[in-house]
Amino acid sequence: MPRVETTVDGPVARVFLARPEVRNAFDGETVRELAAAVSAAGGRQDVRVVVLGGHGKVFSAGADLEWMRTVAGFSREQNLQDARALWALFDAIDRCPRPVVARVQGAALGGGAGLVAVADIAIAAEDAQFGFTEVRLGLAPAVISPWVVRRIGLSAARELFLTGERFPAQRAAAIGLVHHVVPAGELDGAIAGRVGELLQAAPGAVAAVKSLLHAVAGRSPEEVRETTAELIAERRACAEGQEGLRAFVEKRRPDWAR
Q1: Which CATH number among 3.90.226.10, 3.40.190.10, 3.40.47.10, 3.40.50.300 corresponds to the domain 4-198?
Q2: CATH code given to domain 203-257
Q3: Can you tell me the mean pLDDT for 156-179?
């Protein structure tokens, strides 16, 4: 059975973990399938937004117990290959040219919390629980750490990585791990609202902005002066930018928002 399910409804692709019987936990095959599914959805010209979720009551509980038993017997080289595959998953989500919206219910633990951190927008049910629980298993949140620290900052990461404690959606919002917290019954409505806003944006501009954020993060204005100047010049001159400017002047909706 597939571990990941993708459905496409117009411009929206929904990529969902499909292992509710194990709380959508990761194993090696799930990691590979999810990376491939996100890359495939992001590469489709008819897709403009990717919603990342999990079937059942839980978004993702992190590593699968049976998989943990398996990797306990891995050699160092096998563990390196497994970790590199996990890194490739997060990189695929991070660099997806379409905006990725995480729909979080139940719990997002370990690598599941990492998925929340790497999504562009994360919306959680108010009863959802989060945790970077690796230290309680004698491990470390190593692969997910670049994306999580970038999202929540070093101070929050110090406490939550070191304690491995679970924390509620309200704290996840306070530290920036999620952007919106809503009652569980309103989760899909909130997702639809964010998707609707994203569909007002020009798809080429969205992809350019995602690349821009990677280019400017952690660099001084002087370092990215030419990069930023070249991008705005390119966007103004391209067909999409020209259409947007004309629509603004003519007080109408641009082609992509109709």
Answers
A1: 3.90.226.10
A2: 1.10.12.10
A3: 98
- What would the mean pLDDT of 243-247 be, rounded to a whole number? 97
* Tally of residues, the chain: 258
Active site residue 77: no
Domain positions in the chain are 4-198, 203-257
Q: If we measure between CA atoms, which residue out of 194, 204, 207, 193 comes closest to residue 255?
A: 204
Q: Cα dihedral sign for 146, 149, 154, 156?
A: negative
Q: Does 114 score more than 80 pLDDT?
A: yes
Confidence band for 71, pLDDT divided at 50, 70 and 90? confident
At 169, the amino acid letter reads A
Out of 29, 33, 66, 134, pick the active-site residue.
Answer: 134
b/e 69-95 (16+ beta carbons within 10 angstroms → b): eeeeeeeeeeeeebeeebbbbbebbbe
Report the alpha-carbon distance of residue 178 to residue 183 in Å, rounded.
14
Cα dist from 160 to 129, 135, 195, 240, whole Å: 13, 10, 30, 43
- Cα–Cα distances in angstroms (integers) from residue 197 to residues 4, 186, 188, 193, 246, in the given order: 26, 17, 14, 6, 20
Q: Kindly report the pTM of this predicted structure.
A: 0.96
